[in-house]
Write a structure and sequence with these properties.
By secondary structure, the protein is of the alpha+beta class. The protein has helices spanning 2-21, 164-167, 190-201, 234-244, 247-255; strands spanning 35-37, 40-51, 57-65, 71-73, 92-95, 99-106, 125-128, 130-131, 136-137, 143-149, 154-159, 173-179, 223-232, 275-278, 305-306, 312-318, 324-328, 333-338, 341-342, 356-357, 359-362, 367-372, 507-513, 530-535. It binds copper (II) ion.
Length: 546
Amino acid sequence: MRAMKMTNSISITRLLVAPLMAFLLLGAAHAATPGITGPTFNLTAQQAFLNQPDGSAVYSWGYGCNGAPLGFAPAAITTATCPTMQVPGPTLIVTEGQLVTVNLSNGLPIAAGNTSILFPGFQVTATGGQAGLLTTEAVPGGTVSYSFTATTPGTHAYYSGTQGDLQIEMGLYGAVIVLPANIPSNCTSGLAAANLQAEAHWHEVDFRLAPAAYDHPKSCYDREYLFQWAEMDPNIHKQALAQVSDPVRTAACAAGATTPGCSLNVPTEPYHPAYFLINGRSMPDLMDANYAPEYPHQPYNGNPHMHPGELTLVRAIGQGRWQHPFHEHGNHVRILGRDGNLVLSQSDPNSLAGLLMFNTDTTPGLAFEGIFYWTGRGLNWDPYGHHAGADAFGDPSATLPCTPDANGYNTSAPTAINYYEWCQDHNKPLEVTPLGDVATGGPATLPDPNIFTNGAWYGGTPYLGPDATLRGFAPTCATPGPANSNANCTSLQPSNTQANPANERGFAFMWHSHNEREITTNNVFPGGMLMMMLVDSREFVIDESN
Ligand SMILES: [Cu+2]
């Protein structure tokens, strides 16, 4: 099944990724799960225009910071900002058991009427403001204060509780991440410790918010990413802008902002979204850095990155009104928890019971966590590029050993380049055209490297491995090797600003919506709900500090 998925992803890569990568200008972007720390948050709801890759500036509403936040996390990202309006709203990072206070100031145009925040899953006490249908609201120019105890760890949604069909569509949503109060001890022993050792050896920084998602020994992880899925119908946004700009409507609201009816009258059906957003951005903007200055109101990106074997925590929230079939290429995803509930076996509380899923649907209003990892297991060839005996490519690491653990992986040598290699495929060569070692009898012939990723992620060859860049030659090169002066044997590795960062030899996998309509931007492909996930070999330093 995994081999099938790999084959599938390579063929899709051939079709889609090369043109997609042409959008890239330079450098590799970074990710992680950035946010602001509390436990007190001063937020404001304001208007601004969101950038979309078709050149549109879409009138929107969003939560933002009312003054500087208490802090940012993860601390390793030093470029963090919190504007007065952003979509999604600031990710609120707290610790289990904390008393959280969110002070909301309504800075929306006066004709928009009241606004509010719901924190589903928590027992909220509100002070100030004005009673509304679902919660206490802030009148135009006014404030309301919400308090709740962060009782359950995990990923949670927050969003407007006022005229939700319009206000959430306009962008009033965000995430609360509750870190567990008690980190399980095994998150720093065993394989988790080996991974920390590998990180330290390669001088990598830890970008996690915590070593575990829950107070449970089965919830340790090595990397994490948050993806908030929502769609936008620009016609709704245009009508909202027209109404908030209407002087008659504005004057009426100013005369009595608290009277019923002081709100917009924008029909939200029929619904025809043209923008399909992850973290407020569309592809290819998702690949740009967190806090990139070209998106002053869309600070969070979607750019997952990992090494083989790392347990990657995928946090996802359905923030729009449609369900989206989120497909993570490269492996299945084990569901860990939903809405702050770790999914455990009823008969054995030590065992996880979350489904192993090909497709992790995002459901409106629902948050989930899943665990993803990629190892190359079962490919039937050696994606780490190690080869028995003499190596024609002059790679001294070609004879690295692979010592299988109980599960078949090389986990005894955390500092080795081939840490977490699936040893059963160790030394299985590829056929010689264009990249392999043997004339016939290899398990696979890879396509021409020219049709794989180019630009910033060009790895020289489509597979992992310390000698990957050495192998980036045209298929007409009879005797590939760095010493060969034949023009066809000149490395395809770009040497200009399009070059991938040193030592990067990753696989790129699409993580995207499986509704093909949703990987467009205003009907143009590629765009929308589409990210590229990178798996890089162990020695490549993943830097998510922006
Ligand atoms: Cu897919």
